[in-house]
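Practice problem 4.
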């Protein structure tokens, strides 16, 4: 499953015919961070940055916030389902009693 926020941000930016550097210039958010968000290497940005992005992209901030929250939850779910993560947490904190 792709990162919904990343895909949404990329679609908005392209629809406005902005490069990453142009969006960076409009928002003050480093272009390399924007790039990493768009390809799913970094999570959705904090709310303050989402408001700045929404303003620059003339987008609905509430919709961007909703998608960011869903993406964050998807990331948490993927980590929780990861065998490597389960092994790490077992080693770190031991078996969980239920």
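Answer key:
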């Amino acid at each position: 499953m792709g990162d919904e926020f990343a895909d949404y941000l990329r679609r908005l930016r392209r629809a406005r015919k902005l490069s990453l550097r142009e969006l960076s210039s409009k928002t003050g958010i480093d272009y390399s961070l924007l790039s990493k968000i768009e390809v799913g290497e970094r999570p959705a940005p904090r709310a303050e940055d989402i408001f700045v992005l929404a303003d620059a992209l003339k987008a609905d901030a509430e919709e961007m916030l909703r998608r960011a929250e869903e993406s964050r939850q998807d990331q948490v779910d993927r980590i929780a389902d990861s065998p490597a993560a389960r092994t790490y947490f077992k080693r770190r904190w031991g078996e969980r009693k239920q």
